[in-house]
Amino acid sequence: MKIGIDAGGTLLKIVYIEDGERRFEKRPSSEIDILIEDLGTCHSEDEIYLTGGKAEYMDENLDCPTLISVEFDATYRGLVKLMEEQGLSIGRFVYLNVGTGTSFHQADENGQKRVGGSGVGGGTLMGLSNLLTGMDSYEDIIRLAGQGSRDMVDLQVHHIYAGRPTPIPGDLTASNFGRVLSGDVQKLDDADKLQAVIGLIAETVTAVGISLADGFGTKDIVFIGSTLLGNDVMIEIIERYADLKGATPHIIENGEYSGALGAML
Q1: Which among 71, 203, 239, 256 is annotated as catalytic?
Q2: Which of 4, 57, 126, 194 would be 264's cystine partner, CB 3.0–4.6 Å?
Q3: Which residues neighbour 156 within 8 Å (Cβ) at sequence distance 6 or greater?
Q4: What is the model's pLDDT at position 265?
Q5: Does domain 2-88+258-264 match CATH 1.20.120.640?
Q6: pTM for the whole thing?
């Protein structure tokens, strides 16, 4: 069996390949010692490939040989493989890995180059959501966010123009959370707060991605990362915002496993 593990700061992303069949698994990084114990003493035919910030820790504690890959290179290899499998052929693109934070990369046929990063990502989603609502379950947060509205939280262009014609689409955000002080905070539902948090993250990373794509001479922006998993609100905001700016967003299925898959390649 081949086992690829992307040992990140928040999640352990694992890909198993056996008899040509591929299986994905995700665990919180707090269970890293449990995973090491579950892997136990490897069989001679098992191959374990590691990447991510906690890869060296796993290597030191696993009772079997492993091969460690540089995280950014592994993610690129895995991403290219997934894009090929999903019929997406792009010669030149920017990709955003929206994990705990967000890493920005420019890529072409010759490889990838990391061009920056942001502390805004899934960690922001979980942290702000907990501060504002007390919720700490990713699945519950994204489900409730789908029932909310950002209109009472975010200051939008149409609020500023108060019904008059706007030079840009009126539902564009002028200031994330910028309407809170002018409204009745007590009337805000948790769903509204959570949707606004997701909006802040989605718009922030997409805006950076669009700027990087423009500077790289492309309109194609590829999104991967665990923060997108099942997050329909975030995907909708990304697609809407990118479209307004003339960019083409691509959401890669199982993209959060790019690093684990690429570590095997």
Answers
A1: 71
A2: 4
A3: 150, 170, 171, 172, 173, 174, 179
A4: 92
A5: no
A6: 0.92
